[in-house]
Amino acid sequence: MSIPWLTPGGNATGFSLMEYGLAAKWPELLKEIAPDVVRVAVLRDSTSASIGEFAVIQCAASSIGIQVSSASVRDPVEIERAIKALSHEPNGGLIVSANAVSIIHRDLIIALANRYKVLTVFWQRTYATGGGHLSYGPDVFDQYRRASSYVDRILKGEKPADLPVQAPTKYELVINLKTAKALGLTVSPILLARADEVIE
């Protein structure tokens, strides 16, 4: 997920909204908020699944004793099937990464995760503020603010081809404490103190 654009010379410039290293934090957060988690499914868009991102999640998860599986989905029926199946497994969690399916069906995914009581970490704050359990991802508004500097520089004569694609520099952790408590989770004061926003 990114917002770079191609310059007239064919080079890319702009600001990326995601980078693979971020994905390593998602299983760690699930383990921190629910230490009994031993298996995690990654909800992915089956038409454009990121192999690199999934590999990062697998590597990070295995180092903390979590087994990872892929839940490749395309539509609401497949989304519900995947989340419902995960709910039948004890000590499970769900990672919802950035992809077209998760964006289009955001409200459905949040509702199903809550209905089936599946602890879920999302890639962007709008999921947590919309009723999801927790999110960790780039501060999108910070990226937009930084992008405006490129517009200014280009209007002042700099060549877009000379401006590199930039990764996020600011990330935010949002915890929906109300939703977490509905799952029977007790969020540690240490994790709450690290959060950029806590929804009660």
Task: Describe the protein's architecture and organization.
- This protein has 200 residues and is α/β, with parallel strands linked by helices.
- It has one domain: Rossmann fold, CATH 3.40.50.
- It is 40% helix and 22% strand.
- The chain has helices spanning 25-33, 51-62, 76-87, 100-104, 106-115, 125-129, 140-155, 177-182, 189-194; strands at 5-6, 12-15, 39-45, 67-73, 92-96, 119-122, 134-138, 165-166, 171-176, 197-199.
- It has a seven-stranded mixed sheet, sandwiched between helices. Strands 1-2-8 form a three-stranded mixed sheet, covered by helices on one side.
- The longest helix is centred in the last third of the chain and has 16 residues, at 140-155.
- The radius of gyration is 18 Å and the shape is globular.
- The mean pLDDT is 88.
How many structural domains are formed by the residues? 1
Q: Helices and strands, in N-to-C order? A: EEHEHEHEHHEHEHEEHHE
Specify the CATH architecture: 3-Layer(aba) Sandwich
Q: Class, according to the CATH hierarchy?
A: Alpha Beta
Shape: globular
- Strands, count: 10
- CATH topological fold name: Rossmann fold
Radius of gyration: 18 Å
Mean pLDDT: 88
Strand content range = 15-25%
Counting DSSP H or I runs of 4 or more residues, the number of helices is 9
Spatial order of strands in the largest sheet: 4-3-5-6-7-9-10
Unreliable stretches: none
How would you characterize the largest beta sheet?
7 strands, mixed
CATH superfamily: Response regulator
